[in-house]
Amino acid sequence: MDSLLTALVLDDEPKACRLLNSLLDEFCDEIGEVFVTTSWKEAINKLETEQPDILFLDIKMPSLNGFDFLNTAENHISKVIFTTAYSEYAIKAIKHGAFDYLLKPIQVDELKIAVQKAARDQKELNKNNLSSVLNLLQEKIVPRQSTLAIHDKGGLIFIKIDTIILL
C-alpha cells in the first residue's frame, strides 16, 4: 500500500465520532490516522496543523452546521465526506464540493467505497503532482539543450548533441 491517508471526523455527537472512528479503524486499511472531535474550533485547528486528507463532516450541529463550517475552513479541506442522517442536504452538499455523502447509520460497504475512492483520487493527485514537478525540472529549471558549443580557433562551433558519439 502507498502512503496511508489521514482523516478528521467532526460530529457533535461523541457516540457517532467513536463509531465512525472504529469503523475506519476496522474496515478502511487506506487510513492510517484519524483525528476525532466534537468541536468545530478544534477541527479548524486540526485542519491547519495536521492537514488531513479526508474530512468526515456531520451537517446538523448545534453551534455551526457543516456548510457554515466549510465556509469557515475552505482553504484547509481537500476531500469532504458528509456523514449525516438527513438525505435532504445531498444536493446542497454537492454544490459545496462534497467528495461523498454517507447516510447514518453508516453502512460499512458504502464507507469502504468512499474511502477507497478517496485513496485512488489522492494517489492520482500525488502522481500528477510528481509528474508536474519532474516536467518543471526538465523544462524550466534544467532546459534541454539540443546543441553543444565548442571553442575552436575560429570561434564557436555548435554541434547537435544527438549526433555526438564520443567526446
Please render the helix and strand layout as text.
Elements: E1 5-10, H1 14-27, E2 31-37, H2 40-50, E3 54-57, H3 66-73, E4 79-84, H4 90-95, E5 100-103, H5 108-141, E6 147-152, E7 155-160
Parallel strand pairs: 1-2, 1-3, 3-4, 4-5
Antiparallel strand pairs: 6-7
What do these coordinates show?
It is built from 5 helices and 7 strands; from the N terminus they run βαβαβαβαβαββ. The protein is α/β, with parallel strands linked by helices and 167 residues long. The strands form 2 sheets. Strands 2-1-3-4-5 form a 5-stranded parallel β-sheet, with helices on both faces. A two-stranded antiparallel ribbon has the order 6-7. A hairpin with a 2-residue loop joins β6 and β7. The protein is elongated.
Task: Name a few traits of the molecule.
167 residues, five-stranded parallel β-sheet, 7 strands
Short characterization:
The protein has 167 residues and is an alpha/beta fold. Helices cover 44% and strands 23% of the residues. The strands form two sheets. It has a five-stranded parallel β-sheet with strand order 2-1-3-4-5, sandwiched between helices. The chain has a two-stranded antiparallel sheet with strand order 6-7.
